[in-house]
Amino acid sequence: MGLKVPYVTSYLTEHCAEDDYVSLAGYEAKGGYRAAKKALGMAPQEVINLVKESGLQGRGGAGFSTGMKWSFMPQDSDRPKYLVCNADESEPGSFKDRLLLERTPHKMLEGILIAAWATGAEKTFIYVRGEYAFPADVVQRAIDEAYEKGILGPRCMGKSFAHDVVLMRGAGAYICGEETGLLESLEGKKGQPRKKPPFPAQYGAFGMPSTVNNVETFCHVPHIVDQGADWFRGFGTEKSPGTTLFGVSGHVVRPGLYELPLGTPLDEIIFEHAGGIPGGRKVKGVIPGGMSMPVLPAGQLDVPMANEYLRERQSMLGTGGIMVMDETTCMVRASCIITYFFRDESCGQCTQCREGTGWLNKIVNRLERGAGSEKDIDILVDVAGKMEGQTICAFADAAAWPVQGMIRHFRGDFEEHVRQQKCPFSGSFEL
Amino acid sequence: MVISEDTRAAIDSECAKYPQKRGGLLPAMHLVQKQLGHIAPETAVELAEIFDIRPVEVMEVLTFYNMFFSAPRGRHNVYVCTNLPCALRGSRTLLAQIESHLGIAAGETTEDGRISLGHEECLGACAYAPMLRVDETYHENLDLEKANQILDGLE
Ligand SMILES: Cc1cc2nc3c(=O)[nH]c(=O)nc-3n(C[C@H](O)[C@H](O)[C@H](O)COP(=O)(O)O)c2cc1C
Ligand code: SF4
Ligand code: FES
Prior knowledge:
The structure holds two protein chains of two kinds.
Chain A: H1 24-29, H2 34-40, H3 44-54, H4 66-71, E1 82-87, H5 96-103, H6 105-119, E2 123-128, H7 133-148, E3 164-169, H8 179-186, E4 210-214, H9 215-227, H10 229-233, E5 243-250, E6 256-261, H11 266-273, E7 283-287, E8 296-297, H12 307-310, E9 321-326, H13 331-345, H14 351-369, H15 374-387, H16 395-420
Parallel strand pairs in A: 1-2, 1-4, 2-3, 5-9
Antiparallel strand pairs in A: 5-6, 7-8, 7-9
Helix pairs in contact in A: 2-6, 2-9, 3-6, 5-7, 6-9, 13-14, 13-16, 14-15, 14-16, 15-16
Chain B: H1 5-15, H2 25-36, H3 41-51, H4 55-64, E1 76-81, H5 84-88, H6 91-102, E2 115-120, E3 132-134, E4 137-139, H7 144-152
Parallel strand pairs in B: 1-2
Antiparallel strand pairs in B: 1-3, 3-4
Helix pairs in contact in B: 1-2, 3-4
Bound molecules: flavin mononucleotide, iron/sulfur cluster and FE2/S2 (inorganic) cluster (FES).
Iron/sulfur cluster binds at residues 175, 193, 346-350, 353-354, 391-393, 395-396 of chain A.
């Protein structure tokens, strides 16, 4: 609670400081549900085409085209179809969905309703991570209000279109953010990801055709319907349109949220918006998109924050969670925390992931203690390489990439631990 | 029977929201834990009966998720986030200080049964670090003094 409003706002967050905006009346007073009304007057295929033309990419981490994803939902099937709103937000460094859940719940519901109409879904399951108790309460109140006013229910906004929304709380497992782990959890099981294919559009929640989208993804949709694809493309880059909510954490003067166009240079976000590094210290490295994404060294911070540019630097936008580490930071210590997280959260189904995450953590810890050898560093690279692209879900890749990034750019830190047989960074954060 | 009539009624209405009854299992476990504080093996057997599944299936779910407890806890669950963004802002130092303030290590419960202390992975509050989760409430932008005040105020 006491959530801080973004330092820079744009269309997604412009009213989020206003308490009234959380209520249906307050949201409608600012033009809320106008877009849903418009969408429900369009042919579903038209809505899908509009979202395709907008170029909106999913904001949950993978960056897949939202309009495309919707078009995979079978049209002629008489089986029930479902939507799933992924509010599991547990990628370390990410805290944007929490703000949207707490401050713009009706915007998310409006996006959901539009997506439901476009895909012909009869029900949406919103899966909120278990620890987000307060955000879940806010969203549940918004759902109740939307039912009372006939926006949801048997005749949405007076149309002969029925849609129900059900909120479920998770119970503390990072892997339930992976969409098929989430589906298993929704069905009351362990959140172990499913083999794909079949993809959720064929076999999703409770075995029915389903589409999974992130909270922020849904929040962009009403704006696209209201103002058009060209307007949306006025923000961001040609390949990555729109704004996103960047979350800046770590060693900066003003950690917090910043809604900025995709393609905003990383150094502009850190130094102009977030106020730079405290105490006049220098930056050492930055993780640009949540903990799964490879770190960038100080010399590469001019990169525009969009996947087409980040990929050139062997990293990715992920969730837009930017973690800034100053010159005091020991990158081996940082790697201890990163590898511990993945070891702890692996669901254990795939050998490469279960064993690999354990080995990575063990070897990094050994290096940090000063008990490692030069060969250990090569083993890390080797183990990480063998985890990639081999497993049921992308978690193993997400565990391998950050280690590869750390060694690619900060091998010297690892080597220094071997040479001195101890951690040479006495001023670094405590482990 | 340890699961109360009220909880059973609430479980029924949760189950009705899902196309298959089993969809109500996680919500049911949250409800049971709210009533009883934890889900003991005999409670898991009752849950299995309600859902018409084998007890081992409930146990599997119970042990998979961090927020479900199979043994009794302190009256308050206190967690410090120790993931990287919080650690960069001193959360691991704070945890060590809290451990010595309470006289217990993370993973333990105070002798008077007041507080169970733990560390947790990222809780979505990274910019407002260091932070504590006390039961269902987040406390952000802390230092040792503020943290101790919060802890000392717990009944
Ligand atoms: C290990 C792992 C964890 C993930 N966690 C989340 C998450 O917490 N929230 C989220 O929206 N997507 C998460 N994703 C991505 C989802 O699988 C999925 O791609 C996304 O929810 C789709 O929504 P979008 O297309 O709107 O981005 C995760 C993926 C992986 C591999
Ligand atoms: S890659 Fe890891 S997390 Fe994903 S299914 Fe395999 S073991 Fe589980
Ligand atoms: S790292 Fe602590 S809340 Fe994200």
